[in-house]
Design brief:
Blueprint: H1 2-45, E1 52-56, E2 59-63, E3 65-66, H2 69-80, E4 88-90, E5 93-94, E6 106-112, E7 115-123, H3 128-136, E8 144-151, H4 159-169, E9 176-181, E10 184-190, H5 194-207, E11 213-219, E12 229-235, E13 238-243, E14 245-246, H6 249-261, E15 271-272, H7 281-295, E16 298-303, E17 306-311, H8 317-330, E18 336-340, E19 354-358, E20 364-370, H9 373-387, E21 392-398, H10 406-417, E22 422-427, E23 431-438, H11 443-454, E24 460-467, H12 473-476, H13 480-493, H14 510-523, E25 528-533, H15 540-560, E26 568-572, H16 585-591, E27 593-598, H17 610-620, E28 654-657, E29 662-665
Parallel strand pairs: 2-4, 3-5, 7-8, 10-11, 14-15, 17-18, 20-21, 23-24, 25-26
Antiparallel strand pairs: 1-2, 6-7, 6-9, 9-10, 12-13, 12-16, 16-17, 19-20, 19-22, 22-23, 25-27, 28-29
Helix pairs in contact: 1-2, 6-7, 7-8, 9-10, 10-11, 13-14
Amino acid sequence: MRLSSLLIFGSTFTSAAILSLVAASFSADWIEENSRRSVMYNLHQQGMSWSKVHTEGLRVFITGVAPTEADRFKAISAAGQVVDAARVIDNMQVEASAEIGPPRFSVEILRNDSGIQLIGLIPENANRTMIRDKLEDLEGAPAITDFLEAATYAAPEGWAPAVNFALSALDLLPRAKISVEAGRVAVTATSDSPAQRRELENDLRRRAPASVEVVLNITAPRPVITPFTLRFVIDETGPRFDACSAESAESRKRILDSAIAAGLEGPATCTIGLGVPTPTWSDAAEIAIKGLSTLGGGSVTFSDADITLIAQSGTEQALFDRVVGEMETSLPDVFALHSTLPVEIETENTIPEFTATLSPEGLLQLRGRLQSDIARDTTESYAQARFGSGATHMAARLDDTLPMTWSVRVMAGLDALSHLHNGVLRVTPDTLSVSGTTGDPDANAEISRILAEKLSQTDHFSIDVSYVETLDPIAQLPTPEECEAEITAIAEAEKLVFEPGSGTLDASAAPIIDKIAEVLRDCGQIRLEIQGHTDSQGREEMNQALSQTRAQSVLNALAERRLLTSTFTAKGYGESQPIADNDTEEGREANRRIAFVLIRPEPVAEEPTTLEAQEANSETGEATPQNTGDGDDSGAGAQTSPEATEAAPDAEEETVDATSGAADPQGETAPQEGDATETQETSDDAAN
């Protein structure tokens, strides 16, 4: 009885234990499955169907290949929203990233008087030794500092021609910054004058390969004037400037206003330049011009800080003494005044003189008196060097009674005469005079500088030089707009014709192309786009190709006539730009055309000098900025679109109407890019 009770009791506990184990097992399986399904559902709801979930006990494992690293973290976060984040085990992978592309290769070439610096990243297979060898072969063998880094990638398309062009450009640019990229070169440089800037731009465009986009930002800064010269004259013709220099717009205005107050009428120019000897330049100029006006005539000449005042013959001694005394008291300390009141002296009938006559044909006749054989030989050699050995005729005799400074004055006068188209130099014991005509608008100022620098303060000189526009080679060049008008006249008189349905010019087009080429030859390196256009008949793709072929045929025809066409481009527009109704035969005939489009550059604002900025800001109460930055000129490629090359006036001059005192800045306002004017519309003799 007792054994049976024990068995029953033991069986009961055993059964309960077994049932508990079974229940626990089923409960664990249910929890695992429920966690797996819940996490899977949440992941799929958030668009992560790429993920997979399985569980082991309380741990939830997430597997699969995530598209990105961000998606992987997003999946972990989504699982943590359903179960405890500590239970989530990350077994996911991330898709392999796309192959990393090559870096942007570029080189900055900086050249100045101290040498050349290379900065940037180049392909590993670039010929680094070739670059250095070419730089070392440049004139002057400049020192080279190499900061280039290399990356293990092949050179991109267009890299080699861009580098070669940049290296060849350095032959022309002793001071420049050249930025090189694959297929693109940007040149930033300065030139000594507007004429040199145009020459540099033309040379660089000719050297540029067709595959390289070239951006040119070449400026002609304010000229360095040495000596800094001003010469104001009042004679029987009235007041005038033979030369005028100023260091700022405000200084120029003050000088011109004082001249107007002294009786100056009509236009006058004053060049803003570098090299002023003192900030009080305009103060001294105002004092000197006012003093000369009080005397009633004569001349006042500034050569840096030296001032020479020569009164008119016959001026009262008391008036002369008073004016000179007031000037010496008022002038800034840095200036030295030398004043002269000419005295009329009875002389013999024969006054010794030397004359040099330059004819319009360039022949030079030398007559009069020179001091010695050495002086005559020296004068003849100097004249031959200046005017040509075959154009010089010496007919001067010797006179050993001439002043010691005679030869110096003759040489200075010949130097001045060389700036004229034709004229006369006359040297006497009392004065030196230069008269004639010139095609250089700056000749008066240049002659004044030469004589002021080479003659002593006791030497008197006069200048009577007239500017004749017909002698100015630059003024006689046709403007791009005048070229447009002439080509338009040719287009209106005759029509270019292509072979039917072809891009080949008809034989009858040859004389028309000859006339257009002759006009363009005189126009210089203008930016021109030769456009091809068709009507709307036929497929658009075929019309596009035909228009491009015809435009290129015209460009090739111009190149065959030995025209420099590096600034010309040919582009086909197909049927996209009709000028007439394509539903009529007349309209279609008008739409089949070649158009010569003049591409005008954008104007480039000139940065004010520090002095001008301070003056402008002082009026507005604004602080002068300390860092202006390097503006990126929005020029375009030499072969594709215009550069922003025509900047604001380089050597600043201002014309002043003395009757009104209103200032009108000289210099052309550059037209806006894209104001393209069709200058020729030619018809085909057949449909597309």
